Each structure stands twice: as structure tokens, then as C-alpha cells.
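Hi P.,

Sorry for the delay on this. The queue was packed all week, but I finally got your sequence through. Input first:
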Amino acid sequence: MTAVQPPELPDESPIPDEQWDAFLREAVEDGGRNAPKEPSARARMVTRRLREQDAAVPDRAAEGDARRPWRRKRAQQPQPSVPPGWRTGPAWREMNGRSSRRRTVGSAIGVVLAAALAVVAVRPSLLLDRLPGHDHGSGASATSPLPAETAPPTGAPGAVDQDGPPTRKDPFRGSPAQRWADGADAIEVPQAKAVAGMSQEDVALALRRTKEFLVDTNLDPAVLRGGQPDAALALLDPRQPHTLSGLQRSLRAPNRHYDPLQLVTRFDPAQVALAGDVVKVRGRMTFSAGAAGEVRVHADYTFVYPMVRTGGKGHRGGGEGVVARTIIRRDLTMVLLDPHQWIATEGRLGVRSSDSEFYNSECGVYDGYYHPVFPDADPTGAPAMGPAADPYDRSKSLTADHQKGCGTVTRT
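Then the structure:
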């Protein structure tokens, strides 16, 4: 066996005793052929000098970096002078993993932000449509339905992008109503509860029948074509003075003083018809306690009717496909009375108050029909002398606005 002489080491050998014993065993077992090479004295001296430089780094440098932003901390952190692997300890990536991950996230955000700014520069509406008071324009967001109205709006809806006039296929183009719910589904009945000595079942009945009244007087296709609102008439209490009898009289012989349009929406079928089968609706229904044995149901809804001509007259040619929208807003308070405490018919409704406004219909016509004004024709009714109004502005109360007269609309 060939004896292997241990190399001459300096006084401060960096090799631990365990590693040195392993070195001797391997040398004896293979006869010294594959014995590991001990670093030279120069290499050991360089290693020791580098260690001393690391130890000489002032602690205040790290303390000062902690007060700066993380990006500066990452750049100014002192790095070990000994290359990785020369001494025991966690690798550089592990020690600085937190800073590295934060920088990666920051870079990703910067890329996404740059891309977003580029898109907004091309299509500013993507950002502007989301600002308060600005309605959505064209695209998928323009047709996404609005959530149900639960409180009075604070203002009118914003302008809507319009790629041309409304058509039979797209009768609500350019209208805020394009995002409103359709027909009777838009009239949502709140959860009933007992009030004013009326049971929960009584309140539920009042709510349900108020919706039935609104649907029959404003959405029933036969009524819209000029028919009689028989289902709605059957809901009214004949013992309430003037309401049922007055509505029946106005339907038989409408005039300025007995006008069925105060409660019922009707169009002359000889002149116009609905463009399609959809009426857009937006509003809300609430209830409250009245006197003992009285529940009051308040309904405030706006209905948007897209209309086309059927008679072929009154336009300057080629207007059979032209769409005109008429907008009606109803503000009703219906009551259901306990017949044991009031002179009332059980289960029938009374009309406590009624206010309505209509937009884009001929002024001064009292024949029991609404008459839309089409964009390709001149009005034939009385001149509009009142102020301009936005028919989609639901922020104003009808009951508080006692201004009368027929004005102009700012849009339909």
C-alpha cells in the first residue's frame, strides 16, 4: 500500500476534521489514485482574504437600505465576495427570493398597464363608459342588462353610442332602454310582510294585483292595439267613488276631461303598431302602511314603446320601416282596504293617486290614443310650448312636478 502523505497545511486550515478524515480514508482505499486534490496554499489564502472582506462590511448599510423602497434595497444590498458554493449557506436566490418575486410581479403589472393604456388610446370609451354618469356604449356591455332599480336614480342616464337610427330588428338602438328589462319581468314584486293590521297574505295580494294592473294597462298586446283593459277594470273596487266609473267613461268617449291615457296605454291600430313584441320597462315597486286596515302600494315605472307605421301615410315617402319611440312614465299609489274597517270590496284595489307623463306623442290630441311623432314627418298636433325634457330621467318625482303643458323631448 502506498502511503499518502497529507499535504502541508497552514496554521488556519479551512478544512474541518470530518472532511480531512474522509480524505484519508479515500486515499487509503484506492491507493491514492483518485485522491482529491487539496487547494493550493495560494487558493486558501485568497479564500481567507475574501472572508475577511465579507466580515468587514458595515452593518449600518443594511440598516440604511431598510428605510428605502424595495427596488433600491434590492440594488444596494451587499453581495458576498466569495462565489456561490465556496461556503455553506443558502443560495443567493433563496436569500433574496422575496425581493425577486416582488420585482417579477411589478414587471408583470407594468406590462399589463402598458397594454391597457395602448387599448384605451385606441378605444377611449372602454375607460369613459365606466365613469359615473356615463352610460355604456356599443359592444357587449351596451346590451348587458342593468340590475333592478332599488332606489331613485340620482340623475339621467348618460348618452348612448348610436350606430345609425333604430330599426325593426334593433328598435332600441341608441336608447338607454336597450339595457332595461323586458315587459312584465321588469316589474318585480317585493317581499311582503304584515303592516297596518293587514296580514302578510293581504299585502302579497295587494302587490300581486298592482303588478297585474300595470301589466294589463301598459303591456297587454290587445290593449296596446286599442282594446279594452278588461282584466284591469276587474281589479278596481266598484265601491270606490269615481275611479272605475270614470275610467269606463273615458274609454267609451274620450275627451280632454275624461282621458283614458291617464291610466291606460293605447295606440291607434290604423296608424301604428309595435316594432316587434318587446316593450322595455324600468322602475320599482314598494309598499307602506296607511291607516289601520290599509296597505299602500307605490309603483313608479317607465315604459318604452318602439312603433312603426301601419297606414302608409303621414311621411315623406319610404318611411314604412322608420321607428319612433314613445315613452310613458307612470306613478301610481294603489290601496287595498280591509272591508271590515272600510267601505270596500274584499280583494279589490283602489287608486289613491295617479300621475303620468308621456314623451314623443302629438300634443293636444284627446281621442284615447297616443300618436308617436316619426323622425321623417312633421308634427300635426298642437305646437309644443312647454320646456324640453329627457324622457329617461327618472331622478325627478312626478308628484312633485306640477308643471303642465306639452313640451319637446331631448331624445327618444
